[in-house]
Specification:
It is a single chain. The chain is mainly α. The protein is built from four helices and no strands. The protein has one domain. The termini are far apart.
Amino acid sequence: MTTAADQIFNDAMTLGNDERIALAEKLIGSIVSDQEIFEAHLAVGQRRLDELLSGKVKPISREELKKLIQQSLRENSAS
């Protein structure tokens, strides 16, 4: 990211969750020209949030995700 983008990100991180969500929706909407695609992205995000809140899925740390990806890459390159 550029310095300007980093600064904007840092500023955005001082906002509350609802404000950051609204900002993210506006940013995504500014690059997605097709409203149906935008709404589909929002629906996926809502579904994933609902799964987390209901306990249907368990969040994992970035470190755990990195380990899983590396393991998968090793397994796929060995075959």
